[in-house]
């Protein structure tokens, strides 16, 4: 069983009253072919992208963030706003902070709604969008989501052992046979503290379909090339939504299926996803285009892939 990698120490960026853990990983040698921003879903964090980061960071500068309320961006306040509208505005502000004019964006789950919102509702231009098992079209939100929305305080007060068991089972249920138990443990870890427990149910309670309906009404206004990826065995969002989403977007949008994967394609089909994403980025990036380092982040926070490996080894040693 392979132990998951660990992200390097993030830079903390203050946006919209919330602290965001942000990461930039760049090629060790030469200029980056392009800038790529990765947007995670729920209940994950930027850590879910690590297998893909290993493949991308050899030729692209990769930008990741833990949305407020997730991962290393879980805040102390019970009044933290973690709904989709706030996250969309934060992504737009974070792109400004990084100095990114037209990055490529890869988004998974609710990260798709966040990326589309930054593009369609805050007018941020993108070079391309790769949408992976995204939360956009109705219906979404399980009966469990609705139950938590009605009883958030009750769930937040569960005994810690019952909460931990619930989180592990919930995350494991998103994937298929290819989802390693080590990854389930890693993705559950940020939620298994008193602060994380409150944050887990807070983010579920604040996610509402009416916020994605704002995007659905504007899908024909997307201004960049789009590719859609989907796990054939996604137990949360049926594969049929991928075809419907493609039909609502401008131009010809191809759907790439991952036959044996569930909802967590970045971890269940990491190699296949990396191949498809690299092929896609090569196709939509001009061959002579390079990007100087203008992210504005201090040097220690811009870690190369080697630094990621060193940080992982150091943390495991302790």
Structural summary, described in words:
The chain is an alpha/beta fold. It has a single domain, classed as 3-Layer(aba) Sandwich (Rossmann fold). 41% of the residues lie in helices and 16% in strands. The protein has 13 helices and nine strands. It has helices at residues 50-56, 84-98, 110-120, 143-150, 152-156, 160-172, 181-188, 194-206, 209-216, 240-248, 265-268, 270-284, 305-317, and strands spanning 11-15, 18-26, 35-39, 61-66, 104-109, 128-134, 226-231, 255-258, 302-304. Strands 1, 2, 3, 4, 5, 6, 7, 8 and 9 form a nine-stranded mixed beta sheet that branches. The longest helix has 15 residues, at 84-98. The chain is globular and about 55 Å long. The relative contact order is 0.19.
What distinguishing features does this structure have?
318 residues; alpha/beta; Rossmann fold; 9-stranded mixed β-sheet; 13 helices; disordered C terminus
């Amino acid at each position: 069983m392979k132990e998951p990698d660990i992200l390097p120490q993030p830079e903390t960026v203050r946006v919209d009253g919330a602290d965001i853990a942000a990461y930039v990983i760049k090629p060790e040698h030469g200029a980056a072919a392009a800038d790529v921003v990765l947007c995670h879903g729920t209940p994950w964090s930027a850590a879910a992208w690590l297998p893909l980061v290993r493949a991308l960071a050899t030729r692209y500068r990769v930008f990741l963030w833990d949305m407020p309320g997730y991962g290393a961006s879980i805040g102390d306040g019970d009044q933290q706003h973690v709904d989709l509208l706030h996250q969309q505005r934060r992504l737009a502000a974070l792109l400004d902070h990084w100095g990114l004019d037209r990055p490529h964006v890869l988004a998974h789950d609710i990260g798709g709604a966040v990326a589309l919102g930054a593009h369609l509702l805050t007018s941020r231009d993108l070079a391309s969008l790769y949408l992976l098992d995204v939360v956009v079209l109705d219906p979404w939100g399980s009966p469990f989501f609705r139950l938590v929305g009605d009883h958030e305080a009750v769930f937040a007060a569960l005994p810690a052992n019952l909460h931990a068991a619930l989180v592990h089972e919930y995350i494991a249920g998103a994937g298929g046979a290819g989802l390693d138990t080590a990854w389930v443990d890693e993705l559950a870890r940020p939620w298994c503290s008193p602060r994380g427990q409150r944050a887990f149910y807070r983010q579920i309670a604040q996610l509402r379909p009416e916020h994605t309906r704002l995007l659905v009404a504007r899908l024909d206004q997307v201004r960049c090339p789009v590719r859609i990826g989907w796990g054939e065995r996604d137990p949360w969002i049926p594969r049929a939504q991928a075809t419907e989403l493609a039909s609502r977007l401008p131009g010809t949008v191809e759907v790439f299926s991952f036959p044996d994967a569930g909802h967590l394609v970045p971890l269940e089909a990491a190699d296949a996803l990396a191949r498809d994403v690299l092929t896609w980025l090569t196709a939509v990036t001009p061959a002579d285009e390079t990007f100087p380092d203008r992210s504005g982040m201090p040097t220690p926070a811009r870690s190369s892939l080697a630094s990621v490996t060193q940080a992982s080894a150091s943390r495991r040693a302790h």
